[in-house]
Amino acid sequence: MTTSMNVGTGEWKMAVKNREYKTGEGKAGLKNIPFQKRLEPHLDELKWLYMELYDNQQMFEGLCSGMEEFCRARRASLKRLDTKREKNPGWFRKSSMLGMMMYTDQFAGTLTGVKEKLDYIESCNVNYLHLMPLLDTPRGRSDGGYAVSDFRKVRDGLGTMDDLRALADECHKRGISLCLDFVMNHTSEEHEWAKRARAGEREYRDRYFFYDSYDVPRQYEQTVPQVFPATAPGNFTYLPEAGSYVMTSFYPYQWDLNYRNPAVFNEMMYNFLYLANCGMDVIRIDAVPYIWKELGTDCRNLPQVHTIVRMMRMIGEIVCPGVLLLGEVVMEPEKVAPYFGTVEKPECHMLYNVTTMATLWHSVAARDARLLKHQMKAISRLPDTCLFLNYLRCHDDIGWGLDYPLLESWGMKQVPHKKYLNDFFTGKIPESFSRGELYNEDPVTGDARFCGTTASMCGVERAGFEMDDAGMDHGIGRILCLHGFLFFLSGIPVLYSGDEIGQVNDYTYKDNPEKAADSRYIHRGRFHWELTGCIKDGGSVQGRIFSGLKQMEELRRGEPLFGADARFSVRETWDDSVLCLVREQEQGKLVGIFNFHDYERIAWIDETDGMYQDMMTGEMLRASAVRVDGHGFRWLKRAEAGS
What we know:
Helix content is about 35%, strand content about 20%. By secondary structure, it is of the alpha/beta class. The strands form 6 sheets. It has an 8-stranded parallel beta barrel. A 6-stranded antiparallel beta sheet has the order 18-19-20-23-21-22. The protein has a 3-stranded antiparallel beta sheet with strand order 7-9-8, covered by helices on one side. The protein is globular. The termini are far apart. Mean pLDDT is about 90; it is low at about 1-10 and about 15-30.
């Protein structure tokens, strides 16, 4: 889609102003916001950035024409949602936001099945639903759905794009936002572009990184780290049938896209807008730091990445302003922050808080909250415009990318500490209550990542197997304490489907030849619907966990101090096992205390501004030398004067 105009920015802007935009929908009472009205304030910057990368006027005009087509095709219901959210740009920053991530097939079989289970999702107080990758991928070579062969087709067995639109429509009627992954860095080797590139078509070879000899790949390998050195070593794969090498940063069947080619950028933006027009409210851009490659660098977080994300943000604001960008950037929070952009030039609306997950589980195993405290201080220094998605578990493994220089200053050296963490969580040492499996273990270095469900990591699996009632109490206590921490953080807490009923590891993946080699499927198991029948039984494991989470969810939803705009800070507790966080605004103050030790500890704080009420128990107390049960927590709210 290109135009014949070959003009400068000023003439182009005039041409845009003079063009009429009609939706063709004819909806009575629907006020159409013209495409050009949203384009105009962004046009100068969008064109400047595009020409800086590509210096191609024709392709830029084609991008704008394509954007207009997607704007015209956007359904009336989505346009109304766009307008509503434009009037309330902070709609996703409220304390009422609660997410849940799930695999469609494991949760309900199909997209229609998910739609039929929305009552249950609502009963979990969830209003943000992240469906893990569901677009078309080759069977057996999908990397959990992240090797996409068609960005506009749902994977066989899950449904159709019409089913996805129907689910989105029903979610919107219920006030639930829908999130979907958009894999930007690569395609599957079975994507149409890859097939045509393999066949020798120059246009499509240029959409990837193809080299006829190993000379250039050898130069890349000198500076580019390996993502999976044990299971997928190197950054290139040789294709004997093509007599060429292709860049494959992740797995050999995932071919890196060449964003130096404007055709790649334009077509991927059209795919992004297509998913937005299917009704997605949040687009999670996967592996975003990798998308620009530069010889002689580590090909991570290069300036051009930010240019691309900034353009993507503007394209969304022009065509689908109700849609949010969620960035997956696997780094510590202070290094992730640049992906938010600036107030004047924003990039992602939200980012994943990746390292807090690993640091949290380190705290559980070490009974030591110092590193978590250090990280919370770093987060508290970020502007309150920085909004994170926070979680205890995600679909992926847990990599121990911790701050080892700091840990070593406390006597925890990197290699033995990683071994301790992996031995602890796999249950190899007597003091462990956890069960799970290693992932991507390197027999040379001994390095590995870890896989397991929240319940199994907290001791529910072991206690159930050993019929240990006291151990089960401790396991449930850990689950609730960790969620108490999760819900106290600024941002949007996201549950992993099954955690709300204490679902344990699923070892049946080993019976499936397509999954057996990937231990991540241990925590990607089938949702056990039969367990939901126990959630109203206050004495059952499921009932105790579900009701405990529900109490926290409802308290959080009704308390504005949990909103993203509240000031967030850390208090010293003078106990390495105890973390204290504070949230405050002019109208009030919350104090959260979290004990990572197995036994009762005292938080040696001294908040002298009055009495506090424990939100979970109703107990009135002073926020001074506060006792906290082993693997327990307190949410304390400052009482109003005279109460």
